[in-house]
Amino acid sequence: MVIVVNNPKSKYSEIIYLRESNNINEIFKKISSIKGPLEVKIFVINDSISSHKLSKFKNIFEKINIVSLRIYSNSRDTILAGKSLKIDSNFVNEREIKNKLHLFNLKETKDILHEGTVRSGDRISSNGNLCIIGDVNPGAIVSAKKNIYVWGKLLGVAFAGNGGDKNASITSLYLNPLQLRIADVIAIGPKDKPKNCYPEIAVIEKQTIIIKPHIIETKN
Fold first, then answer.
1. Cβ 87 vs Cβ 107: under 8 Å
2. Residue 29: CB partners within 8 Å, gap ≥ 6?
3. pTM for the full model?
4. What CATH number should be reported for the domain holding residue 129?
5. % pLDDT > 70, the chain
6. Smallest Cα–Cα separation from 36: which of 80, 5, 60?
């Protein structure tokens, strides 16, 4: 089962691959932190999802600010279960489902450039690099599978390498975040405000996040 969560008013979307071993409550806790309104699409290939299980999903989604919930599956049992719960359920063949998921994956693999302030409560995520031209205010969360560049003040929470890339980095002209995270390493932001007039970069060294001057090398 694949769940795609999308905010139609922004570029943010999340793709979640749900397996039996996953903790469903943890996954939906993550979804509930995404600022709405949200569109949720459930893709089920060659699997039968019972009305009991779908009912659990629906009950959790009803606690979240969603504008639509749809199921796409090549399993007639799954479609009937969805319709019994009055969920918009669409029978499509396996190839069509994979084509739809491929389009989402293509969208997600692109780097994202955001121009403007990221305000408290906002959340921006990229499956590549994330470049923000503007400030990231306290209460905002930005994340990327690769690197994060903030050409402004980074005062909120930044999570680079959210796919496990420990070589990812976080760069800002004014680095004073509430929290930094790179892969599985977390650090609380410094208590003192930056006194330097140059950009800084956060990287992992010896399983610790360190902040150092960001030196841009130029070739003569």
1. no
2. none
3. 0.54
4. 2.160.20.70
5. 80
6. 5
> What tokens were used for 23?
């903790």
- Is residue 5 left, alpha or beta, with left meaning phi > 0 and alpha meaning psi from -120 to 50? beta
CB-count exposure of residue 48 (10 Å: 0-12, 13-18, 19+): middle
118 and 198 share one domain: yes
Q: How would you class 168 by CB atoms within 10 Å of its CB: exposed for 0-12, middle for 13-18, buried for 19 or more?
A: buried
Written as six digits, the tokens of 13 are: 């979307």
Helix (H) or strand (E) holding 37, with range, is none
CB atoms within 10 A of CB 34: 19
Q: pLDDT of 20-78, one tens digit each? A: 545 566 666 666 666 667 888 888 888 888 888 888 888 877 777 788 899 999 999 99
Domain housing 26: 2-108
Distance CA 110, CA 81 (A): 35
Q: For residue 35, which amino acid is it?
A: K
* Phi, psi values for residue 177, rounded to 5°: -80, 165
Structural Rg of the chain based on CA atoms: 20
Residues 125 and 76 in one domain: no
Number of domains composing the chain = 2
